Amino acid sequence: xxxxxxxxxxxxxxxxxxxxxxxxxxxxxxxxxxxxxxxxxxxxxxxxxxxxxxxxxxxxxxxxxxxxxxxxxxxxxxxxxxxxxxxxxxxxxxxxxxxxxxxxxx
Length: 106
Hints:
Blueprint: H1 7-20, E1 23-24, H2 25-33, H3 40-52, E2 56-63, E3 66-73, H4 75-99
Helix pairs in contact: 1-4
């Protein structure tokens, strides 16, 4: 069984990775794949949506005669990440109360 990843959680993962450093699409996908099973065909719509919402900006950089499009988190993206982290902590705390409940606690 796999636990479903919501769009908001996937956004949070991408933003958290980009908060550490800028990445081009393929490298970013590989970083996310280290944590969850995701395809490039899933990642690029996420990146487009985050860019459209001003969470990310892009720039191109030449590498071995080809351009790579790098993604960079914006201040709006950093704020969005903080909101996601707060929601995640609340969600995780609520689940932990059930998953790790002792004996007869209600």
